[in-house]
């Protein structure tokens, strides 16, 4: 019902805007082709608004009027036949269980993908750290001195001292 009100208000706003434009056009230049087109648009919009106003909205939403005078056409509550909905309920339960299983499967697939991505990230991080470590250790020679430090005449040697 609200959406029809919104449509009616929207048409009314458009109608008002077109009416104002038409009036401005008529003032400035008289009845021209543009004014005639605007008038046709206004007539169409008015027809749409009238049609929407005359629509019986209760029919759209399945609402009915209950007469105040009891009628033999309408059965009282105790006269209504009982229906067996056991099978229908089971089908609904099966549908609900199926949906739950489907949701669980989708969550499982999603978690699996996330953990695979985490494994890939951890592997990449480990490999990067390993390569950085290898690069740092390759700079240090077997004697513990860096490659660019070569022992010369000024370098002290182990176990030998001048007295």
From TrEMBL:
Composition bias, Polar residues: 130-141, 153-163
Amino acid composition bias (Basic and acidic residues), ranges on this chain: 98-108
Domain of life (superkingdom): Eukaryota
Location of the region described as Disordered in the Swiss-Prot/TrEMBL record: 84-108, 130-163
Protein name in UniProt: Polyprotein protein
Organism: Solanum pinnatisectum
């Amino acid at each position: 019902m609200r959406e029809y009100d919104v449509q009616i208000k929207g048409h009314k706003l458009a109608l008002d805007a077109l009416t104002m434009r038409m009036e401005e056009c008529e003032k400035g230049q008289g009845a021209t082709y543009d004014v005639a087109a605007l008038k046709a648009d206004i007539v169409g919009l008015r027809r749409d608004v009238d049609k929407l106003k005359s629509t019986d909205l209760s029919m759209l939403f399945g609402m009915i009027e209950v007469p105040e005078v009891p009628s033999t056409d309408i059965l009282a509550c105790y006269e209504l036949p009982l229906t067996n909905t056991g099978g229908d309920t089971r089908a609904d339960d099966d549908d609900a269980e199926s949906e739950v299983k489907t949701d669980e499967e989708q969550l499982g697939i999603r978690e699996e993908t996330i953990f695979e991505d985490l494994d890939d990230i951890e592997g990449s991080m480990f490999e990067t750290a390993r390569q950085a470590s290898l690069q740092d250790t390759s700079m240090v020679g077997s004697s513990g001195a860096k490659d660019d430090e070569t022992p010369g005449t000024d370098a002290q040697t182990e176990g030998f001292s001048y007295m």
